[in-house]
Amino acid sequence: MESKLLYKIRDSFKSLKNYCEKENFAGWDPYDGLNSKIFDALPFKHWDFARLAWIQGFKRCPINFRRLMLVPKEHNSMGIGLFLQGYCNLYQVAKSGNLTYGNEEELLSKINELSELLISMKTEGYSGTCWGYNFDWQSRRLFLFPKYTPTVVATAFCALGLYESYEITKNENYLNVALSSAKFVTEDLSRTPYKSGFIFSYSPFNGNNTVFNASLLGAKLLSIAYRYTKEGSYKQLAKEAIMGACDGQEEDGSWVYGLLPTQQWKDSFHTGFNLEAIEAYQQNTGDTTFQKHIEKGFDFYLEHFFEKDGTPKYYHDKTYPIDIHCPGQLLVTLSQCKRFSKNRELADKVTKWTIENMQNKKGFFYYQLKKGISSKISYMRWSNAFMFNAMSYYIVEENN
């Protein structure tokens, strides 16, 4: 007999799916404040501090002023990449005979639609295919990333979607575009030497060069490209990037976010990114050199980032703010690292808690919960696309 929880998760996902499809996968983002037509008309729009304050004001405010400030709902490349991965998972479920979330024909049509949209959104002018975000972003260190500046994070999620799409559609263009992203990693990103390896930069622009999860996503892309091409340099560079990241892993299995003094926190979902990327390298290359690092990392991850009742913590030493990425990434990490069945009870508790505490009746998921007033704004890339993809992994595991 199917459990009440399974029905709850099915209903939750269907509600999310209906919401996202109704919105045509377009929406707002926590960091899209500079897309405001009001701000663009202001005389101080070129001031670094003004841009930073404007972005942070939109991000931190629990009330959504975007419509009033003329911030349009738009497609975000990473969001589309996540939706694409999710629909590919649903297609595999439908192919097995489970038509709960759509039939093969409907899902295949959506996969092709999103694949073509994603390719149309790539950033031109670099050595390989790459993607960026649909807004200017002013960092705290007063560094401006202009709209569509490619990042290895956005590129990784987009390319992964196209790889999955190729496996279903056998459209060679999807494969070639995804494979080209390896050239972006090898030729457009800088490398910072670190102990026995190096760290790939976050983007081609200087300013965020030593972030472990970003570097590992670059390594993950190279390992996938190696699986298809058997290009030895891809495997070697991926291994060196992972060596650098594993050298940065602390004795208890944890990672700080990055090497800058302002990046010394340890958080849940970036830890999940790290584990998933190292596991992907091993699966794609057959090189199991880093298994002990995965084991130590998983022990820390599962022990420090989830409460007994299923509450997903953001930081290893405190709970709030609870970010929607934290429960979502758990499902992806467990599935991709083949540890879902072993940790099914935790996955169920966290998913149940998230649905009950972070999903709106309209279907969308909230951005963050705080001790005080929380941000319950619907963000298409950050919240909804991420949970759509994450829950699709739960559905695959449940179907299997």
Task: Give the gist of this structure.
This protein has 400 residues and is mainly alpha-helical. It has 14 helices and 7 strands.
| Helical residues, percent | 55-70%
Give me the secondary-structure category: mainly alpha
The helix/strand order is: HHHHHEEHHEEHHHHEHHEEH
Q: Unreliable stretches, pLDDT < 50, 5 or more residues? A: none
Shape: globular
Residue-averaged pLDDT: 95
Q: Tell me the total number of β-strands.
A: 7
Number of helical segments with 4 or more residues: 14
Strand content: 5-15%
End-to-end span in angstroms?
Answer: 16 Å
Reading side by side through the largest sheet, how are the strands ordered?
A: 5-6-7
Q: Report on the biggest sheet.
A: 3 strands, antiparallel
- Radius of gyration, in angstroms, nearest whole number: 20 Å
Question: Which properties best describe this structure?
Answer:
single chain, 400 residues, mainly alpha, three-stranded antiparallel β-sheet, two-stranded antiparallel ribbon, 55% helix
Please provide a written account of the structure:
The longest helix is centred in the C-terminal third of the chain and has 20 residues. Helix 5 packs antiparallel against helix 6, helix 8 runs antiparallel to helix 9 and helix 8 runs parallel beside helix 10. A hairpin with a 5-residue loop joins strand 1 and strand 2. The strands form 3 sheets. The chain has a 3-stranded antiparallel beta sheet. The two termini are 16 Å apart. Helix content is 55%, strand content 6%. It has 400 residues and is mainly α. The protein is built from 14 helices and 7 strands.
